[in-house]
Amino acid sequence: MEHARFVPRGLMLAAALAACSAQGADDNTRLRTRALAATCAQCHGTEGRAVPGEALVRLAGLPQEYILAQLMAFRNGQRSATIMHQITKGYSQEQLETLATFFASQR
Question: pLDDT truncated to tens, each residue of the chain (107 aa)?
Fold first, then answer.
């Protein structure tokens, strides 16, 4: 019965590896999201916190639905812009949703 004491350890190791794998996936998702959001920083500030008094919109903390609606309006030409209509066409629907969710979560 010597092998019986190794079973719980093996299960614990498997659980720990699964947790690390899930953590790694979460970390990768967070990194991808932050990298995607960083592409907006030049105009909208780091994490969507535009400089107060500047002409550009602060995205941080706006409702997710509003941000996504504006991104879609830029993409389909319903909202005029100098460059946003071109930028939004370069992103997938999923990426635009990710950006809207990210900026909405910023305070």
Answer: 555 554 455 555 555 555 555 566 688 899 999 999 999 998 898 899 988 877 688 999 999 999 999 999 999 999 998 899 999 999 999 999 999 999 999 98
Report which residue type is found at 14.
A
Distance (Å, rounded) from C-alpha 89 to C-alpha 94? 12
Determine contact, residues 77/85, Cβ cutoff 8 Å: yes
Domains of the chain: 2-105 (1.10.760.10)
- In eight-state DSSP terms, residue 59 is -
**91, 96, 92, 74: which is closest to 83 by C-alpha?**
74
First to last CA, the chain: 57
